[in-house]
Amino acid sequence: MKRRDFLWRSGQVLTGLGVGQAVLSQTLWPIPAAEAAPIGQNVPKLALLIGINQYPDASLKGCLTDLDLQQKLLIYRLGFAPENIVTLADNAATPDAIATAIREHLGQQATASTIVIIHFSGLGCIGKTGQPTLLTANKGEIPLTQLAQWLGALPTDKITTILDTSFQSSGEGVQGNVRLRSRPPLVTADLSDPHTASSSLPPLPAFPGLLLTATTDRPFGALPSGQSGLGQSVFGQSVLQSATELDFASWSAGRLTYGLTQSLWQAAPGTPFQTIWAMTQAAMQPQFPGLTGNKLKEQASATGPFSLTATGGIGVITTVNPETGIGEAWLGGVPATVLEQLMARSLLFVQAEAGVIGQVQILERVGLRAKVRFVESTTPDHLWAIAPGQALQEAIRVLSRQPELTIALDQHLTKVERVDAVSALSNVPYLTAINAGEGAADCLLAKVDEQATQVALLPNAPISELVVPVGYGLFTPTQAPIPHTQGDRGEAVKVAIKRLSPTLQTLLAKKILRSTENIMASKLGLRATLDMVSPKAQALTQQMTGAIPADTIVSLDSPTVPAGSHLQYHLQNLGSQILYWLLVGWDSRRNSYLILPTLNSAFGEIVPGLTQPLMSSPANPEWIVRNTTGMAEAFLIASTTPFARTQACVPTDPDNFLHTLDRPLEIVQAILQDLQAASPTAQSLSQPETIALDHQTWATLRFTYQVV
């Protein structure tokens, strides 16, 4: 058996992680170069997409969006014919309808060479059979064992099953500010069963081909019972105990579906599957990325089931009105941190078979859809027209000059606490409040609880039941605590808001910086590395812009570094212009800093072809990691012009480039002004409430590392 065939026949299970790492089996991924060609460029392709928002006792918001995301991806990036995609939505997705679609649409048309993709977005649980089960319309159930049997009967084994659901539940439909795609079990666990007693999730059955699931709580390398050899499964760990939905201003989507489709839009043909998988995991945590995914060590690998038929991009033109020339664009490849800030008047390159043929301008955008019109041809002697199927790339990004930070108020706060919180937040600029679960939010305000001692409260009560409120704190939308934000016991909510105001301003500053990230879109040739100098010299991570052809796979991880380590950044200019740089970040104690060489300093300029350490002073190219555990984050920004406005906000000291920041939001706003000043061709697109940034003139790269 060829090793590429082994990829399909092994019944591998890869688990989509909210945060963490997946261990990629050495027997699964290394493929000889001769066998690493894309699979299925010219073979039949069939798909079945299932999405259910409406349930009798619950409702989701993102499952039908998931179908849109997958359908556009299959047609415009994976080469599926529209007539070969069957969609079952809401009430149409009954067990009988799903079984019929598998039998007739897939079974009767597929041959041994056919590629099949089946996708499910909806609720899951432990069903009446005691097995992981998909919940369908009309209170239907499909145990995974049944689904695996149906798919196993197909004449092809080149099957990819994507399940954006999960099977364990805390009993609540909302966790923090996100909806959960799981429900409580329909049966009571039998604790006499040794497997049930040792694990809250029964083993997943062996699926033909490749199975991608949203979350699991199994330890690394766990093998479902009865599977060995070709049935080996690769699991990861996740802090997300259930599949969740991402909320945006006007739409929602499944975290796994959005991450997977976004990474496939951006990837180039032939991208190894483990690279796509790591990109998927990074995209699944857009607001608090922290730990971002796999360690990628292989230089060549199979492309897996996703055979990309066109160059990567942020989206595609789907329809064009022949009378007005106005087109509709699908922007499924725009990063989540950018999409909600992307404004009208932004310019996009249009990619056709002949290459870039011109630009379109966004007239309006609602969610993932935008109205566009052709504004400029790259070849004036040849008149091009936009047409469905043409890929889009970013040219000029128009952003809100001052976005807001949205705080969700936890559902367990009392009415009085909510009123007081809204009143206090109204006095802080650029902040807005919503109730948890009612829309997109950047963070969550909630009470921080702790277990009291048994003696202090109720001597006869179990310790697990003795939970008392300590104060208020901030959490991520998925209810992970944001370090160093917990208040004292008895603190009033208005006092807490005042105490947390600097942290909220910092979160807003980070949100703005993330909206400038453009590692794939930047036209600057830039490679940046983060190295540990001591106690052990080693390269930690590397990033490079999309303008540089990638010939190797580099780590997308957030590296782990010991407290007290000496670190150093290096920046290599592979372009043709002099570049200027700054580094703005937050250490593991959440203290903010700026490293910015003085104007006209030789240390602040990087000439073409030069690799230069980013120095905190002329005499010190390194800095020491604080002795505080936690996540550190930094944004490395390069520009074709100096950062004059930012420099004016900090003291000028030719012997010290490192500045601690009391008001990081002020610095970030100055950085935006500098980036706009570096984009003279984009000035006409700016309005009083927006800024326009040309990807030819800047690059923002984000680094994170965990201090232990």
What does this structure look like?
- The protein has 708 residues and is α+β, with helices and mostly antiparallel strands.
- The chain folds into 4 domains: 281 residues, 3-Layer(aba) Sandwich (Rossmann fold), CATH 3.40.50; 84 residues, Elongation Factor Tu (Ef-tu), domain 3; 110 residues, no CATH class; 182 residues, no CATH class.
- It contains 12 helices and 38 strands.
- A hairpin with a 3-residue loop joins β26 and β27.
- α9 crosses α10.
How would you classify the helix and strand content by structural class? alpha+beta
Helix fraction bin: 10-25%
Task: Give the number of helices.
Answer: 12
Indicate the mean pLDDT: 80
Radius of gyration: 26 Å
CATH architecture of the largest domain: 3-Layer(aba) Sandwich
The CATH class of the largest domain is Alpha Beta
**N-end to C-end Cα span:** 45 Å
Shape: globular
According to DSSP, the number of beta strands is: 38
What's the multimeric state?
Answer: single chain
Reported for the largest beta sheet, the result is:
7 strands, mixed
Estimate the strand proportion: 25-35%
Question: Which keywords apply here?
Answer:
six-stranded parallel β-sheet; 708 residues; Elongation Factor Tu (Ef-tu), domain 3; disordered N terminus
Quick overview of this protein structure:
The chain is an alpha+beta fold. The chain has 12 helices and 38 strands. It folds into 4 domains: 3-283, Rossmann fold, CATH 3.40.50.1460; 315-398, Elongation Factor Tu (Ef-tu), domain 3, CATH 2.40.30; 405-514, no CATH class; 526-707, no CATH class.
